[in-house]
Amino acid sequence: MCGGKPSKPKVVQTEDPAVTAQKAADEAAKKANEETAAARAKKQRSTLLSQAGAAGTVIEQGKRTLGA
Q1: CA–CA separation, 21 vs 7, rounded Å?
Q2: What is the predicted pLDDT for the residue at 10?
Q3: Which of 10, 46, 54, 65 sits most deeply, having the most CB atoms within 10 A of its CB?
Q4: What CA–CA distance (Å, rounded) separates 12 from 56?
Q5: Element spanning 26, H or E
Q6: End-to-end CA distance of the chain
Q7: What dihedral angle (degrees, nearest 10) is formed by the CA atoms of 23, 25, 28, 29?
Q8: Which one is predicted more confidently, 21 or 68?
Q9: DSSP designation for 55
């Protein structure tokens, strides 16, 4: 009874290295895209603020009346 068939060793499932590399590349690309989008949005806001501030308001330019 004790000396029955030996049990099979458990096999550990491992991921294919190509799949692991692809997942890592996808994550890196996603992070880079998020950082690029954040940088573009920041630059866009900065540009809009500088354009609005560069011209100033009509009153700051010395115009006191509407029209001509």
Answers
A1: 34
A2: 84
A3: 46
A4: 68
A5: helix 17-55
A6: 110
A7: -110
A8: 21
A9: H
